[in-house]
Specification:
Length: about 400
Amino acid sequence: KRSYQKLRSMEKPSSSSTAAFTLPQFMRAAQITDYGTDLDKLLSIQNNVPTPRLGEDTPPAKFDDPMLLRVLSVALAPGDARVLSGMTRELQGPPSFPYTPGGDVCGIVMAMPDEGEKDKKKKSGKEKKYSFGVGDRVAARFVNKPMGMLGEYALVSPAVCDRVPDNVSSDDAAALVSSGTVAVILADSIQEGDRVLIYGAGGGVGSHLCQAVRLKGASYVAGVGMDAVRLKEKPICCDEAINYEKVSPLDVKEWQDEPFDVMIDLAGGMWPTLREHIKRTKKPVVKPASKGGRFLTVNADQPTFEAHSVWAILKIFLFPALWRAFYTRYSLSRFSMPKYTYAIALPGTSDIATRTFSLAAEKKIVTCLDKRGPFPFTDDGVRDAFRLQRSRHAKGKVVIRVAEEDVGKRSQ
């Protein structure tokens, strides 16, 4: 059994919240009692949830080497709604009910593995060095499964965590640590002068991706979403925007006459639609692979899917992606279809979070939260946040504020 530094008398001048700290036996946390859709029945805030303890409790997402946070803000993601639905219960389900949802979090570090454990890892060559410690405000994305974070305290993985700059709020950090990082990774595929078309441009990833591709030198950015007016306003600033409920982006003549270099699908299902449209009209809005055209996606063809085995996941995600990647590179399809890339994996390190937070601190990327939030940490607040996330019509990230941060305690 691992030994950990005791959670008492933890002094650090930069944060009084950790001074002379004693971990409470119980905490307030969101609890989900079963799979389903009736949020009023299944989801509530409870006051008597056992506080997680290092060395005694295993994170419900089953990752190694956790550290303890006092939670400030939690951002929801599609995975939170998927776990609640039970549609992937064998793969992403909680160990037991009730469980605490939430995967992307910002908070104050209260405890990390002790020096004895560090020494053992150093001798074995497995020591990990982090840029933060007790008392620092950090943000972490979920590992394995989105669960365990929506409470006053949480066990998080330090491997995918980084210190939050002083001028970035906790709400913003929770939003950026997952969706912002995905946007930054996708933007790495953009080349100077590219014309870029983004489906799902108004969501959590899309709102930040529109900004990130501009930083990479995109010459023209068009967004597709329900609120075309918002997509042309700051900070998203698309050159053009289309409401897909009113106009089909694939039929815009100006885009057919001057096709895009890159199409990015954040909504899901655009590849089959694009292929059928090109077969039917021979007027693509994106260049073929032979002329440098690229298609990027982070979703399956069906954004809401059901899978109860690894084989089912492979059929949904891996096999179609491999086939499409092959035939758009090595068959005659490369003369009509863009090069297909399925970009799914985030690195298992904090490097991308560091880059993303730096861009936010420099005001090069502005965090986009849905204006209906941040939602309060109450029964109604958490339920409303889950309803909005589940609707897939959020305008930016859905964030729940668990605790107020003392802004005066950090530098401005």
